[in-house]
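User: Hi! I'm a student and our assignment asks us to look at how structure tokens line up with a sequence. Could you show me two examples?

Assistant: Happy to help. In each example below, the sequence comes first and the structure tokens follow. Example one:
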Amino acid sequence: MENRIIVFVISSLVAIIVSSVLIGSTFVALDSVQQQERFTEVWVGGDGLGVNLKIEFFGKKYRTTWDGCLGEYGRAEGEFVKTEDHIRFNPKTEAGMMKDRFRAMRVVRKEGQEYLIDVDDENALDYLEISGLKKLNESERVR
């Protein structure tokens, strides 16, 4: 019985490592292409702890990362369509906690600041400073 447990634990670790390598290699290829294009907008937000989101727009493409105190929790990349103050995301790849999230967002303004919020979050305006992503200006953008 102990041998089965050891084999199960080792098999699980190998599966996790292989999955991480495969996901990482997918994004390395996309990153190399995207670094050649200039970001037109960068939005960031979160609580500074477990939920920190960053959306980078360039051309008709976007990249979203979700990270926190334990590292990267998820990532999504693809194309987007912006109409007035609404953005619809069409992901090509999704991983981790970004799978099936943020299909549409909208821009709201409060006290001179623009925020990007999830259209499915009914309470986003109540806690805008945490739930909304702020648009970075050119000097705030970090690559």
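Example two works the same way, sequence first and then tokens:
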Amino acid sequence: MKITELVEMPDAVEETEFGYVVIIGDQRIHTHRDAGNPEARMVTEWIAAKKPIKKFIKAPPTPEMVKAEANRRITAGIAEEWKQRNMLAQAVFALVEELIRQGIFDPAKWPPETRALYGGLTAVWRDIDAIRSKSDEIEAKPEIPQTFKDDEHWR
């Protein structure tokens, strides 16, 4: 049975992390909380209109739900994930370069694995930085070309 086919109000509605469970007698009907889902919209309307549902059971918060909310707040109000990654990489490279400049770090004394790792990370960061620079150039053009995804714009 579908929620949209119900002829009576449910005994209970359980909110889950991803949607609702509508309970009528011993039947449990699951639906996802998607904006375009007519069943979820119907349940949301029942709840908003305070229809005579005998019981509304709100899902207990989980640690994952708290982490998702924290992530939403950080990315919406402070810094998107790409910006956080860039800031972290920039800080690490700036710190290492400064420690090398001050003579505190001496790459010549690093084990070969550490030198190889640092060299690889530096090469990757250099490539990322080059792409970001090209992106800045393309974004600053008065008219961004329709072919901006073509390799010719990124060399």
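Here is something you could point out in your write-up. The two ends are 58 Å apart (CA to CA).
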